[in-house]
Structures are given as structure tokens and as C-alpha cells.
Amino acid sequence: MCKLHAEVMQGKGFFQSGSAFGTGFFQKCADCMSERMEASGTSLKGGPMTNKFTVTREQMAEILRKQTDFSKIGIFNDVMFCSVFRNPEDCKELLQRITGLQIAELYIVQEQKNIKTGYLGKGVRLDVYAKDVDGNSYDIEMQVMNTGELPLRSRYYHSQMDNYQIQTGQMYTNLQKSMVIFICGFDLFGQNRSIYTFETVCRGKSDIVLDDKRKTIFVNIGGDRTEIEKEAADLLDYFRTGNPTDTFTKGLQTEVEKIRQDTEWRENYMTYEMKIELQSRIGREKAEAEARAAGMAEGLAEGKAQGMAEGLAEGKAQGKAQGMAEGLAEGKAQGMAEGLAEGEKSRDRELILKWLQKGRTMQKIAEDLDRPEKYVRKLAAEKN
Length: 384
Description:
By secondary structure, the protein is α/β, with parallel strands linked by helices. It has 3 domains: 68 residues, no CATH class; 167 residues, no CATH class; 91 residues. Helices cover 54% and strands 10% of the residues. β2 and β3 form a beta hairpin. The longest helix has 95 residues. It starts with a helix and ends with a helix.
């Protein structure tokens, strides 16, 4: 790690507006982050990457400039939340306050690759998965935004927890209770409740419960507190405001402040944030490229159709105009020819009649006009 990057980890000048470090400082930090990014599945080579993401050092420097101020990271940050509640005692107290259960002993599951992938650097996970001494499982998720699919996610999480509990060939009776808890910064159901608890019951006969040992809880940190215990209310108020009011929440806040100052945690947090930003950036670029390609294809199709329609209309108009012009010319020529022929015929007829009156024979008239005798006789007959 470079000296400047080490100073970033210690909070020296990283978030100061107009810092003397300037762009070069962030550029050097981007350089020294390459190794960590490669280790976490991202390659940074100053140009296009062949791995999962594409990023340049300039883009990395820009991302670093946008990093969150560590002093403002509170308990309701997903990374901080998971870091704090990796402590089994704190996690047990959280569960007891939200569920009302009395849990004798709890331990945090260290290996959960079959549950959900998601680690923040070394030993920092993105969710809290725990089990008690009776084998019951608890998955605690912190959710800041309503993504619209939490009920379906809870179904998936339960199924994955079941897969983790039971091995191939074992009896279903080996399955223990599983509980998925979403601690939300919003009211998923809009009823202003602080805690929504769901179990499988018979429709129309809610006292008949399907004992599938599954329970799902959605916590609304801003809901009405009248129907929950004071200890639960104090905890949810702390999640909502960041201000501790009792011994437990004050202890949590002390842990938050301690974690903020941990150099390794800061480095892991920055690596995680950069990966998230890069994924978002690449996703946006991909979506924009697909939209442009789709727009071009659609525009080409529409342009082709419009061009064909306009070309057909123009061709018809041109053809009509040309046909009229050619027809007029041909008509004039034919009219002139017919008129000329009719004029000659009229002249011949007058001569024939005149010469017949003077006693000439049909044969003699045909010779004088240089016409067939049949033609002469026909004209003479038409006149008569």
C-alpha cells in the first residue's frame, strides 16, 4: 500500500474539499488498489479488462473521490450492521428483542457458501446467519431500500437454509426451525406496524397452523411502537436515528465507533464499495448500449418501411406523370398521322369523282393516282 493510500485509511485529507492531494493522490491510490481488486475478482490494468468488470485507473480515481465519509457510517449501513452483529452476544440480544424469544446460546455460522455468497474482504459478511444450541437457524438481513421482491427473497432464503440444515439422504424430521428477519428502513406493508410476523396458517381458520417450522419477520424501523416492548422500541429507534438510549444500544454505538477507526475494515469497505460502484457502472453502460442498439434497429426498420412507402408513392407519381407525357406525345403523333391520311383520302376522292364525270375509267384513274384500282372503287362507292 502506498503512503498516500495509508493516509486515506487513517482519514487524513481524503474527504477534504480542495485537498492538496488533488487528482494525483487519487490516481496513486487507484494504482495501489489494483492488487486488492484483482484478489476480489476484479482486474485493473489501466484499460479494458478481461474479467467480470471493465474499468480504467481514471475511473477508479473518480470512484475513490466519491467514497463515503467513514465518520458518517452508522449502524444502519449494511456493511457496518453485519460487522457489528457478528458478535454472538449482540446478535442474540437483537433476536430476543425482535422475536421475544429466550435464546440460551447463539453462534455465528462462519461458513455459509450454500446459504448466500457475499463477503466483505477477510471475514466480513454481507448478512448475519446464526444458529442456536437447538439447531434453529436465523438469517438477519438489513434492507435500506424497497426493491419490491422481499417476500420472494424470504422464500428463497428459507429454501437455502433448509438445504444447509439437511444433507442428502437424511430424514425431513432433521429440519429445525428457520427464521428470516428483514430489518427495513421502510414500511413494506403500509400498515404502520413496527414488526410484521408471518407463519403458515390455514386460510379461513387461522388457528390451524402448518407446522413447517418457518417464520418470516419484516421489521419497520419507523413504525408505531405501542404494540412492541420498550427494549425492541429502543433498538428500532437506534436503527432509525443512530442515537443510543439504553445500555445495549450504547454498547452497539461504541462498537460502531471502534470499527470506523479500524484500518483493515476501512480498506475492506473501500474495496467493497468500489466493486459495487463498478458493477453499477458496468450495468448502466451495458443497458445504455443495449438501448442504443435496440433504438438503431427499430429506427432502421421504421426508416426502411417509411422509405419504401415514400418511394412507392413517388414512383407512382413519377410513373403517372411520365405515362401522361408519353401518352400525349404518342396521341399527337398518331393524331397527326391519322389526320394526314384522312386529308389525302379526301383529296383522292374529289379527284376520282371529277375524273369519273369526265368519262375516265376506273383503271385509268388508278394509274393516274398511283393507287390500287380497288382503293379507287372503294372511294367512289363511299361518295355515292
